[in-house]
Amino acid sequence: MIREGGDVVADRIVIPVLDESGLNARLSEHFGRAPYFAVIDLDENGNVLSLRTESNVSEHFGGTGRPADRILQLQPNALITYGMGPRALSIFQDAGVAVLRANENTAKEVVAAYTKNELVALTEGCQHARHQ
Question: Residue range 93-121: average pLDDT?
């Protein structure tokens, strides 16, 4: 559990998204190339406590560092995505962060599936990933 302000956060999930429209944001097709990451804190009942959108400032967007390393700084319990390269998947697995396969198109739909425990683990990295 994470304590943010006065709230106890049961889960912090990160979702790669295409824009800054909160829960209405559409998911990005690939984790490392997402322009933004939705960071969502949930309480023990699966209710959204907070949501913020972080820009992807990794090396893929002219910044520094690998996307996975930058996401780990946010201390997520889970990352929900359509896919990612094998190296990033390994980084998250080694850090104990659950990587789950997205089954919907918007952050809101994915959060609902997460709270209903409908998502499965992503077990293989994308073979078309540039960074393997």
Answer: 95
